[in-house]
Amino acid sequence: MSDARDVGGPAQPLLIARDLAKHFQVRGGGRSAHVRAVDGVSFTLFKGETLGIVGESGCGKSTLARLLLHLVQRDAGELIFDGEPVGAPHGITVAGLRRHVQMVFQDSYSSLNPRMPVQDSVAFGPFVHGRSKPDARRVARDMLVKVGLNPDLFGPRYPHELSGGQKQRVNIARALAIEPRMVILDEAVSALDKSVEAQVLNLLRALKQQFNLTYLFISHDLNVVRYVSDRVLVMYLGRVVELGPSEAIFTRPQHPYTRALLGSRPSMDPRHRIEEPPITGDPPSPIDPPSGCRFHTRCPFAEAVCAERAPELGEWRERASHVAACHMLEPGSGHSRTVQ
Amino acid sequence: MTALVEVSDLSVRFVTREATVHAVNGVSFSVRPGEVLCILGESGSGKSVTLRAMMRLLPPRRTRIDGTIRIDGQDVLALDKRRLRELRGGLVSMIFQEPMTALDPVYTIGTQITETVMRHKGNGRSAARARALELLELVKIPEAERRLANYPHELSGGLRQRAMIAMALSCGPRLLLADEPTTALDATVQIQVLILLRRLQRELGMGTIFVTHDLGVASEIADRIAVMYAGRIVEEGPVADVLRAPMHPYTQGLLASTVHGQSRDGEIEAIPGSPPDMRRLPSGCAFAPRCIHAQPACRTTMPEPRWPSPDRMARCVRIDDAALVAAE
How high is the ipTM of this complex? Predict the structure, then answer.
């Protein structure tokens, strides 16, 4: 399928993130400290794929999403959208980026203006981006139809008059109204009941095909991520611990954290319950995170080297590469369990 | 064995000037000593309201409760204030989804547990303090001695939840009411707390009612499961049986729409539509508007509970058919 907006051709990645970092300053106890929310994250997003991002609270997945859209300013690193550096003198502007990248948030209510009928919320984007008012309204009606809401019935309603699932459909319509090429879904189905979640997942799947979209799908629900994603990126305390094709991650996880995360999923079978938790303790605070490999405080295989030196994410060559940042996978790292 | 809990025909309505919300509409169930009943339902299904009604935690001025709740032979809805205080925290304890709001932020964990023990057991301060330490060790809080002096905000989410469990267990309740206690926790912490609760429940022989929206959580902890929809229990039975062979179309739909291992090539089988408005419940079966098997009869009267086998119940007109087929 050809897309007039496609600058570099289908082989050129849609988005490249290099060494993104964001540290937030916090004050407490008289001294200042930094939350190292995102600490050197690199990945590539290909055209037309869905990249899932998983991790527990505090791992930086939502901050990462906000960095990609410049909703928070990065402290370091580089973003390249379809070959053009973002916010650089010869690249694409932040406003230009946002025309191509839209976001759907977890809280469907607080992300809609409570004083505006939802049809106006959907029309707002196209209007701001240069459409005439009647034109923007027509787009809004079309989009509401496409997300499965009757515009005559639901368009004039206010957000509080809609159910959670309906509000999230409106948010999706609003995100798609300016014809973006990429959508960031930040826990977009997490607050919905299971029966409604399934409807919205099916809708997202259909819209992706119809509009030739690329998704960045952030979620804590591993089962949903597996269903949705082509590739998966696993984060722990601001760093990428594993990245690879979805099936490989779920069937052959490499990093001990990924294995623990997958092993913590309830069994769905009362006759085969989990008897022992895969790991103990809570994730540490991202303020002053552990030295070396950040997982070493909870890792069953941790050795001295893990506290001393941070492991590198293996060399990433192509779309099918499966890499993990662990000393056990790195020959000559000094870890006794290193695969030879 | 006699039941520890017997709830029959419980209804809860919230009355305001604008509308009446029919949150619970004729719920009956029982729990034996040492048994875990999971009440499974989506938001607004009435599962938490049912639990709160059992502790009489709902605001009395706006709430109309009908039916009977018997716990260990006591008629909970008829208890006076003094008896109710003895019931809460003594015979029956409750744990909540958000420990930060359930614990008092201005007292240390140790003080809160010590006070509870002194109040209910009549122990002296030092004995109660020793009991508090014992409890923190019981729920596997590392460095328990030091943690007694911590305020709730100084603990991580998982430790806070353990502290709340310790407090709930402090007076040896015979019944534990758990309202989504693991929902707000991260995956690797959730499984730890679930396994802890399962172990404690067995060791202490507590009857437990565990409210959740998560089929996976129910499969890890429940003996029996009761599925709620629009304020009614639509299906009940042993957890393995209900998850393997659900009978009610809602339970079937819920299982099909829960993503776990479906092929990426196909769509998920979603239940169409959305749950009813609890202010204006449809007459008849509340699931009928979303049900692919709905018949005209479904829209006029709510089907009575049907028991295809002694330990399974479902409220659906189609169940009789299944039972007849099995009998032939």
Answer: 0.90
